[in-house]
Every structure is written in C-alpha cells, then in structure tokens.
Amino acid sequence: MEINADRHVRWGILGTANIARAQFLPGLRAAGGIPAAVAGREAARAEKFARDNGVQRAVAGYQSLLEDPGIDAIYIPLPNALHAEWTIRALEAGKPALCEKPLCGTLPDTERVLAAAERTGTLLWEAFVFPFHPQMRAVEELIAGGAIGELMEIKSNFHFTVRSPANIRLSRELQGGALLDVGCYPVRLAQELFGPAYDDAWARATMGGDGVDVDTWGVLGYSGGRRLMLSAGMNRSYDTFTSLEGTSGQIRITNPFHPGPSDTYQVTAAGAEPRTLPATTGEPSFTRAIAHINAVISENVTPRMLATETSLATARALNDLAGQIPLAKAG
C-alpha cells in the first residue's frame, strides 16, 4: 500500500453511525489523520454525513470504499450483525481496519474474522480505545506499584438511555443488547487487569426491545477469589463509574472507557488521604488509539493490541455470560 505523500493516513468510514460522528472523527482529527471518505448504502445520506462532518467525499456502497485506492485504513461502525462480513471484506481488500466493539456479535463470527486476519496478514484492531489512553496506563502503573495492594475486585458499570424503539441496539436480528453494546467494556477492562483466563461466568438480565437484554448484571470469577462485577443497561442515565478494590485501597474512576475533560480517578490507600487526579488533558478518547494505528501504517511502528491478540478472550467471556441469560445466548 502506498500512503499519500505527506504521510497522513487517509481513513474511510463504512456507514454513517452516530459513533463515527461523535467519537471517531474528533479523535481522528486530533490524531492527525484524514477523514477521506464515508460510504453509505444510500448516496444522499452519505453525502449529507460528509458535508455535516467535514469528510472529504461520499462513496455509494461499502465495497466501493474498500476498493478505493485513495483509502489507507477503514473504520467499521456498522451494526454488530454486519461486522463479520465487512471486516473480512476489508481484510481481504488489504485495508487495515478498526472495527467497532464488540468485534462480532457471536463467538463463531469472531473466530472467523480472526482467522481471516491471520490468513490475509492485514492488520485489525477492535475499537476498545481505553487501553491506549494515558488514564489507563496511569491506573495500571498504580496497581503494579502496590498503591492499593493486590487488586481483588472490579465493580464496573456502563449504563445509558435508549429512547427510540427503532434503535438498532434493541434489535435481536442486528445482535443488539446491553451486554454486547456496553457490557463488553467491563469485560475488556477485567481482561486488561486480571488477564484473559477466568474460571466461571454468571449473568442475569431483564429482556426488552425485540428480544434483547436491556439491563444486565453478572460476574466473571478469576483465580484467587478475584472477580469482575458488571452492570450494563440501556434504561438509565449515563453511568460508567468503576471501582478497583484492592487489599489495601481503592481506585475510583468516573469513566475508564471514554473519559472527558470533567472525569477523574481517585486513589485511596490505607492510612493516606485520597488523591483525585484528572483523567485527561481534554483530547478525544479515540485519539491515542488512532494515532497508534496511523503510526503503524505510515511509519512502520510495531503494532500493539491487535484483535488477533486480544479479541478472542473477550468474545469467549461475552459468550459465556450470554449463555447464562435466557433467550439471549450468543452464537
């Protein structure tokens, strides 16, 4: 692949999802990438998205974007049920891709996508961007340095409100539901802090929409009595509060996943005054992840946190949690 002369990576967006406008594009601009094109099934909708959001041009049809020689990388924010097909097509077209989380809505599809990444050798990332964020690195350093003793329990929420009955998150056919949409974040956080191997999974849910889980709570158990306690849903106000509980202290994080300018994390160690620290200097949450991908593509930097290294463990945990929920088993 030839990158354009000024070495800025030219990104194409598959679809006009709101997360592309609200999260990806601000991060892309902060990271120095180029919003080169957006593809839509309807040309008029793609053209409006391009005009409204400063994307250089619109393309009719997803495959046309994948075949466009003026595109260096692809962002895939399509509904979960479309992730496998279009991620595999991007990989086969030789386009490095950043696919929205979860990588796929089912474990078999995840395995199929990862096999395609291995077969083609094309780079693939899953859009959990928080592991790239400075807040996450700072928290990991605190834990490694013994600031709260041994980390034993993660209590992590991700809730927000879905108001429209037509929202794709409420569609079973499109593989929506609270666990896949936002419960995946606490699962990935536990994977970062406890490692990929867990001993058992338990979950329950309230069902709604078109046969999806709309309020889900569960536990992943790890060796030595460690555990993740997660709560995720689409029926209450925005809430990403997370507490990391150690043998001699706690770290309380207002938003570990997409921290904004007002977010903080507080360290409380035994016998010491609590310390409250800013989560971010104000840059969009996608910035560091996109900057890394840009550097990998344009400067031959060694890639980190590829989907082939991280996504299977997350998919297995989601599959096992979903298997505990009546009518919502994944795969």
List its salient traits:
single chain, 331 residues, alpha/beta, Rossmann fold, Dihydrodipicolinate Reductase, domain 2, 2 domains, 9-stranded mixed beta sheet, 6-stranded parallel beta sheet, 9 helices, globular, disordered N terminus
What's this model, at a glance?
By secondary structure, this protein is an alpha/beta fold. It is built from nine helices and 15 strands.
Write the layout of secondary structure elements.
Layout: E1 10-14, H1 18-31, E2 34-40, H2 43-53, E3 57-60, H3 62-66, E4 73-76, H4 80-92, E5 97-99, H5 107-120, E6 124-126, H6 134-144, E7 151-161, H7 178-194, E8 200-208, E9 212-221, E10 227-233, E11 235-239, E12 242-246, E13 249-253, E14 264-269, E15 275-278, H8 287-299, H9 307-322
Helix pairs in contact: 1-8, 4-5, 5-9, 7-9
